[in-house]
Amino acid sequence: MTKKEWITMTTFADNYYVDRYQTDSLKWDGVEERFGDKELLPLWVADMDFQVPKEVQEKMQERINHGVFGYSLVPDEYVNSVISWQKRRHNVLIQKEWLRFCTGVVNALHYLIQGFTKEEEAVMIFSPVYYPFYDVVNENNRQLVVSDLMIEKGQYSIDFNDMEEKIKHHHVKALIFCSPHNPVGRVWTVEEMEKVALICQKYHVLLISDEIHQDFIHKNHVFTSFLGIEKVDLDQLIVLNSASKSFNLASLLHSHVLIPSDEMRATYDEFITTKISNPTSLMGVIATQASYEFGEKWLDELNQTIDDNFDLMTQTFKALLPEAIVYEKQGTYLSWVDLSYYVTQDKMKEIVQDKAKLAIDYGEWFGKQSGTFIRINLATHPNNIKLAVQHLEKAIKNS
Ligand SMILES: Cc1ncc(COP(=O)(O)O)c(C=O)c1O
């Protein structure tokens, strides 16, 4: 990496990176509780070490100065900002009637599974996947049906035969789909998504698409929402998204549930009132609207920084641990790395945590076939990324 490239990539990081120690940050201050060691470099849970755009802080500050935080409405301007964002950034036209709210995407997944399927009914996920998808199915006493993604030519893909067979065999009622996919970093093509949707339609499977990572797309790839694909039956589709990942707002507990079907929307409305009296968060609404109205440039610079961090990580692996397999990151800010050449599954904790002193997400959390993988969160200062790979090399060399 040339000096010039390094300076460009550190500009955003230097402007927005903050020391999060002793701020009650799960990622930094929760390391000891999660990993049993507080001296680890945290690159795990998916939030970012960057401050939100200045305008977002200002809009929140304005509301804080007002000093009243009673029950609140969602203004039309908010809805317009969501519709405009989806049109501008993702070329998808959403109708304002479709929009509902929830206190986070994972909470929405729980409510959707409870509201749209019955106990013991089968719900499908693709593995490896964001581990709360397993919990959503298991904790609600639904039957978990897993279709493993395949690795073909160094890239993950869907095994459509397996998917269809299992849907038929288990009478699957709902599919929870991750797009872009955490942790493998795939941005699914329209062709792949059409196939998924057509199989779901054939067997009357409710398609729930978690599109929370939609704003992190590598420049060589294009994200398409299921809502924007003509062949998709909108009456069998629910899409979840949020500004929480894109703008680092997770603790504000605010997310979107997009339900085009009138009938399913009525079911959601009826069900959600039995669970939470108010599914909107005042600060979440304010921060999201400000992000969509003022955050575009910030987000573009952030995406560039994440792509640069990925390149830096890849180059450092190439130089220090050339047999590590770094999967192409088409989307998300997470990288997926297979260390099987250097480390056996039973030694992963010893090498990665005890010796390299890293707090990362282990592959086995996402799927039993991924025991020698690690997921590295790239939304941090490039120095942390470089350090992580250097620590790994030292640990592996000395093992
Ligand atoms: C695919 C996916 N869905 C949902 C979430 C969490 O969303 P929320 O904090 O809104 O529940 C994450 C966080 O990492 C995620 O990766």
Structure description:
Its cofactor is pyridoxal 5'-phosphate. Belongs to the class-II pyridoxal-phosphate-dependent aminotransferase family. MalY/PatB cystathionine beta-lyase subfamily. Keywords: Lyase, Pyridoxal phosphate. This protein has 16 helices and 15 strands. The protein is an alpha/beta fold and 399 residues long. The protein folds into two domains: 3-52 and 296-397, Aspartate Aminotransferase, domain 1, CATH 3.90.1150; 71-294, Type I PLP-dependent aspartate aminotransferase-like (Major domain) (Aspartate Aminotransferase, domain 2, 3-Layer(aba) Sandwich). Helix 6 runs parallel beside helix 7 and helix 6 packs across helix 11 (262-273). Pyridoxal-5'-phosphate (PLP) binds at residues 46, 104-106, 130, 178, 182, 210, 212, 242, 244, 250, 255. Residues 46, 104-106, 130, 178, 182, 210, 212, 242, 244, 250, 255 line the site of pyridoxal-5'-phosphate.
If you average the pLDDT, what whole number results?
96
List the domain count as a whole number.
2
Largest sheet: 7 strands, mixed
The CA-CA distance between the termini, in Å, is: 29 Å
Query: Can you count the helices?
Result: 16
Strand content: 15-25%
What is the tally of beta strands?
Answer: 15
Assign the structural class, choosing from mainly alpha, mainly beta, alpha/beta, alpha+beta, or little secondary structure. alpha/beta
